[in-house]
Design goal:
homotetramer; 350 residues; alpha/beta; Alpha-Beta Plaits; TIM Barrel; 4-stranded antiparallel sheet; 17% strand; elongated
Chain lengths: 350, 350, 350, 350
Amino acid sequence: MIAVMQPSATAEEVEHVVEVLRLHNLKAQISQGEERTVIGVIGTGFPDDLLETLEVLPGVDRVTRITRPYKLASRDFRPANTVVEAGGQRIGGTEFVVMAGPCSVESREQLVRTARGVAGSGASFLRGGAFKPRTSPYAFQGLGIDGLNLLEEGRRLTGLPIITEVMEPAQVERVAETADVLQIGARNMQNFPLLKEIGRSPKPCMLKRGLSATIEEWLMAAEYIMHHGNPNVVLCERGIRTFETATRNTLDLSAIPLVKRLSHLPVIADPSHGTGHRYLVQPMALAAAAAGADGLIVEVHPEPDSALSDGPQSLTLEGFDQLMQTLERVLAAIGRPLAMPHARLRAASV
Amino acid sequence: MIAVMQPSATAEEVEHVVEVLRLHNLKAQISQGEERTVIGVIGTGFPDDLLETLEVLPGVDRVTRITRPYKLASRDFRPANTVVEAGGQRIGGTEFVVMAGPCSVESREQLVRTARGVAGSGASFLRGGAFKPRTSPYAFQGLGIDGLNLLEEGRRLTGLPIITEVMEPAQVERVAETADVLQIGARNMQNFPLLKEIGRSPKPCMLKRGLSATIEEWLMAAEYIMHHGNPNVVLCERGIRTFETATRNTLDLSAIPLVKRLSHLPVIADPSHGTGHRYLVQPMALAAAAAGADGLIVEVHPEPDSALSDGPQSLTLEGFDQLMQTLERVLAAIGRPLAMPHARLRAASV
Amino acid sequence: MIAVMQPSATAEEVEHVVEVLRLHNLKAQISQGEERTVIGVIGTGFPDDLLETLEVLPGVDRVTRITRPYKLASRDFRPANTVVEAGGQRIGGTEFVVMAGPCSVESREQLVRTARGVAGSGASFLRGGAFKPRTSPYAFQGLGIDGLNLLEEGRRLTGLPIITEVMEPAQVERVAETADVLQIGARNMQNFPLLKEIGRSPKPCMLKRGLSATIEEWLMAAEYIMHHGNPNVVLCERGIRTFETATRNTLDLSAIPLVKRLSHLPVIADPSHGTGHRYLVQPMALAAAAAGADGLIVEVHPEPDSALSDGPQSLTLEGFDQLMQTLERVLAAIGRPLAMPHARLRAASV
Amino acid sequence: MIAVMQPSATAEEVEHVVEVLRLHNLKAQISQGEERTVIGVIGTGFPDDLLETLEVLPGVDRVTRITRPYKLASRDFRPANTVVEAGGQRIGGTEFVVMAGPCSVESREQLVRTARGVAGSGASFLRGGAFKPRTSPYAFQGLGIDGLNLLEEGRRLTGLPIITEVMEPAQVERVAETADVLQIGARNMQNFPLLKEIGRSPKPCMLKRGLSATIEEWLMAAEYIMHHGNPNVVLCERGIRTFETATRNTLDLSAIPLVKRLSHLPVIADPSHGTGHRYLVQPMALAAAAAGADGLIVEVHPEPDSALSDGPQSLTLEGFDQLMQTLERVLAAIGRPLAMPHARLRAASV
């Protein structure tokens, strides 16, 4: 960290900064410029707010951090890509993975039909919400444990591993019994008790970017999970909140190549929540693949018009199948194969 | 809700919308214009996503909601101001309340000194964090139960009721034993399991606005708590995230008179988190009062430079005392008295 | 437009709304619901602020527009895609066009080298700034007329048509003598005198989206130009301003398929300004193509490290050539050919 | 400026940075840390994009500016407050000034009635738009020269100096003949040809903050004007664009005390455009005064319901009078008198 003093700063003000650093067991390296004094901070274990603490001291003009606040999640720490293995699938390797299924598990018929459909079209994972975070207390809150049981049945029938959301620390153990990947929703990206509990779980997780989270905060949330013991974190860009209201969120695809540069963790994209409109899902799914994502998570519903949640952004089974065909061609153009476990399973069973 | 069809919409497309409404047990009122057909939706218990469901149907151009999604929190539902009583104080009445204290409870000495200081300057509540949500897993996470005990001691010594944060559902009962007001942090505004649990608590709560929450979402979060049984919700504007980085957040003071119009709940402002800079706290505190806030929550620390968290935005005891004197004059100018319980306590003890 | 009255609205308040409409030569269609009265506005030529005017009348709860404010730019008005012809090239047709060149024209040597390089790699247009909008008065402001002359030389040598920025109404005529396409910068998207003047010009133009412009405002700016007589408007998504600071802007790729749905105008993307980082240009260029853009505008510089402006986001000639090769494969995957005029020119000259 | 190298940076990469600096006639001061090398940049006349140029060099991790990019506008450069004198009034001195009048000049009757009304209630300036920037080409575009003539009549009748908007460089000279203060609208904050032309004018100007302009960009725009010769710049905070749609903009009042700290220029607030709702104007006007603004600009219309523009956010004459009375009390509470030239004029004429 570097503190730049004002041109008018006095020797006493410089000395005061040095003393404050000493209070925090840190050393100062003073560099006297022509116009300004610059103070470098030396030591380890900087307090979280050190930057802001220095910034308000008399005579200080600006303070800048020169290292990133996350370590375990950083590519400096681990240069090679992390490949997360879950339910026999690999996320972040050469193959591109697609997670698909309904927003909410609504009934046996709906789930089984969707699971079979997406498996047949080449999905690698079955997604489906049993516990649903809803902005209205009057909206459908999910089937809960019954939903988890239906997901297990979907897995039995199709062989697809399951990704499903967990909303509070006390649920982690139970949801982890069913899920192959624990999903952390955008609104929980900074639910620190939940991150800690998932950090202690042996199951991989997928961490959605918060609606207003910077890329740095997102990687810090991954750091929380990794610091508490779980290295198997998949990141998911799902759109940020901006002034634009024509789309539900603004899918920030530039975050994908940027995160791949800053971190070794896999990154996938959610074009369904990212846009909120069915007709934008395919173009943005293809765009995410072209931008270098490691996979997609897509909402699919056999009858979107009667879905209990997020119908408007769900693809039909036919729409999903069409997406997968175009996706495979776009991936081929950038030299990346599409993971198609079900095709392999079927081949194996012959 | 009103669905406006495209000029080119066919009779079949109009009929399809009507059918989808029927599926959701709703009726359609069709109004044939010169250029377009407009369909009004009639019935009760609209699904959460009805708007988006209709929006993607073939032939539909736009859908608009014509009533607000919250009920209990709305001024239509309850025209008179709600006054929340907590620890003998009243929030949302004629008197303006000030909550003050350190960001984190750090030590007995720090807490007692601050509590006595702010009480002497006219604060109505003692604030202090025992459980701290921190963006870094490497930062000070609060004293926990020891912090709650110190807050109780602060209350014994000064008579000030306590407001302190609760971070997860499993903590609510324990924190409610100590706290007079349960604080819900900005990052937890849409932590629905936490909102439900606080809804079941008999203790009043203060709900901070999320970093990227619209005013409608904020009121929906209050609705969650009220719907689960707790009518004593105080709202707190603490700054939203915008493109501007010169301040920690952008304190949206216009939210204050707007919320007072839409809702009967009390609203206070947090100029400390809202700005992140000590030198902006007093101007924005006075501005919040002038804009019609029912109170303030302010960070005060006897030695901000060595604070374990949020030092840069904390006022010194002297700074707080100076703020209170100016604040009293500004409040008088708009015809509002400042609650000064300690002064009364002292007077009573004479 | 529809005005929804409050449940408590009186008959006088309803009558007042009707009178205000009459003042603006509009009629009211009153529909009495169970709880609320809804007033439909009938007539043509709504004043710009009618929505806001009604919204503040006593008893009014909400007002919603049910038609879009732009006409000429809308796909309702013109269902078929507009193809803009400029300098012998077609923008918005089947072929994907790439505009490339330096941010600023700096010297004959720089421009000629870049023009030849990008032409050889398959660019359709030569871009280059002669008049530069710079946020600092101390920064290089462009070569002006000399820059235009160098662009003309670049065109003579390579056959590529020219796109270059015009910054003020008084310059339009002179810049249009040289340019094949007039570029309107993001900061000028709502410079209405400039839009009017370009509307009167016979030359096609490219309208960049403003940093904080909604898609509707962007289309309204196109409407200005079209209304004043120029139907040849190409839209360019170049990133919006959000809270994220890790990228220069947030390239909103979902705007591309959305605009293609709302409007018949061609849309291209600018991954250079959209990201601000050279290493993000190729992934986002491919993503834009996959999302359905009609073309790209890309900054290329033979020696980016010594560029007088925007060096950090400029591709080298080699980087551009590599981009074009991958781009061609991605476009093929979605069934779209890349326009390669220079290849054709060369073939013709054999 | 300081460039921090990656931990893995090689000696060649460090040397490359040094060479690039040399190319720009700058020197490097290398400081070898335990983990990283930090390179300080020494010299004057940094290119505008130097930061971004260095940032993309191989081996570079982060680059930070340590001085601000504006000079003339900075309080470092001129520690004492600038007081702008215009039409016999002083802006930025001890007295608080209020500019009031209609959004658009519509007719003689409307203007004269408003001018007399606001003068009688204590306004210091008459505002009114003759040339109007409108987002729709179909909306009322202002009376033009006729509007300027009516403003002159308003000034003759009331003695109030005039502030009115100028939209393009070619208009500056003509508008300056009438105006006492030239207003630069939010959408023109980075219309650099306009800023230059106003920089050459002898008339003071008021520079509105752009919808998505950072405080630094706003001060850079002021720097443009000052650099071209006009030191009499008044800044005006008028709300920024955020994700919140319940208000027209988000009035960023924290910008006021922050700009007062960074710059010596006067700052006023526009609660009319800042909120877009009449019922929010008074609370936010009082809040701006409490936050330390030097004045206000407020829209007032004798019959807002029939205004040709911005009616919904205009105060009535009665509403304005009531605002002025409360404002005077709030200002007194913070020790600041309200400028009331008309009262003085009337007193003088007795």
